[in-house]
Recover the amino acids of this structure.
């Protein structure tokens, strides 16, 4: 699976993708991530990607032309896809007005071959990008950020962990996915069995988890679990 990120600040992603599971997954070839500088798709000598909004207003608006060129270029790239005639691609735009991103969406996106992520900046993005270029308009929460880079990181990590080969023992991950493509999350503990941060405080692991009774453990987890949709 390939993630293509369009941004005016590509360096934001450098550190994150060179560590942990994301780095290992790229090395194994389970996923591929490429970050593209939107300024590379401009045609003027100043490489300008923004302009003043029609009708007046504060701030600057990202222009449609370089975004269109970037998306067309990325869509036309050849991907190595076994036994598939047509690649499955989605173009995602991050906006506070978009649908709330959730686990079910992540599960659906994990079936794609290519995800193109458009990261906005400044005051706004020309609305024609949302109307004619993006397949999905997504928000990660009811708040406003300075750009789409953090939402892109959130989406990529959430989706990537569902791609076969990214996480070891992925069969255990499947056991926690619901029929509606949600995710079962429950409390977990490890050693020591008893932790005493102070003399008058004792924080214990629930006895049922130490019992060795798998049926009771499953029942306890079911009661304690939360379904993340």
């Amino acid at each position: 699976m390939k993630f293509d990120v369009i941004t005016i600040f590509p360096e934001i992603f450098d550190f994150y993708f060179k560590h942990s599971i994301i780095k290992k997954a790229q090395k194994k070839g389970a996923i591929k991530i490429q970050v593209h500088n939107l300024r590379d798709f401009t045609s003027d000598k100043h490489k300008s990607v923004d302009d003043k909004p029609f009708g007046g207003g504060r701030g600057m608006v990202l222009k449609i032309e370089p975004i269109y060129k970037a998306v067309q270029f990325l869509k036309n790239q050849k991907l190595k896809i076994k036994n598939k005639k047509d690649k499955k691609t989605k173009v995602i735009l991050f906006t506070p007005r978009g649908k709330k991103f959730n686990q079910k969406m992540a599960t659906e996106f994990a079936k794609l071959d290519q995800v193109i992520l458009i990261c906005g900046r400044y005051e706004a993005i020309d609305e024609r990008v949302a109307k004619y270029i993006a397949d999905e308009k997504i928000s990660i929460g009811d708040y406003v950020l300075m750009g789409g880079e953090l939402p892109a990181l959130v989406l990529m990590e959430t989706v990537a962990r569902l791609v076969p080969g990214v996480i070891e023992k992925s069969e255990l991950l499947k056991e926690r996915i619901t029929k509606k493509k949600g995710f079962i999350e429950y409390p977990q503990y490890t050693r020591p069995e008893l932790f005493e941060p102070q003399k008058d405080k004792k924080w214990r692991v629930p006895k049922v988890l130490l019992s060795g009774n798998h049926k009771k453990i499953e029942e306890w987890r079911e009661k304690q679990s939360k379904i993340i949709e």
Notes: DSSP finds eight helices and twelve strands in the chain. The chain has two domains: 2-160, 186-228. The CA atoms of residues 214 and 229 lie 26 Å apart.
